[in-house]
Amino acid sequence: MDLLIEVTGILINAFVMLIIIQFVIGLLFAFNVVNPSNQFLMQVYQSINSLLEPILRPIRNLLPKTGAIDFSPLVLIIGAQILMAVLTSL
Hints:
Layout: H1 2-30, H2 39-62, H3 72-89
Helix pairs in contact: 1-2, 1-3, 2-3
Transmembrane segments: 12-34, 67-87
Keywords: Membrane, Transmembrane, Transmembrane helix
Protein name: YggT family protein
């Protein structure tokens, strides 16, 4: 059981890192720090986005519209951390 919880913890941490990487690359594109024509970063961003979009879309549908700010990654990170806390308490 401990091994399953540790593996789940590692997967949740990797998942949270993907969310943070997607957020940072999105900010770099939004503020023109990095040109969106940068093929490498665009491929990384699109790959991570294709993995996370099916999970983030239902959260976006539940949250109120806030304009340009997307809080769904934050909600997902908090949910993942709550799940990890519940699993470690078992």
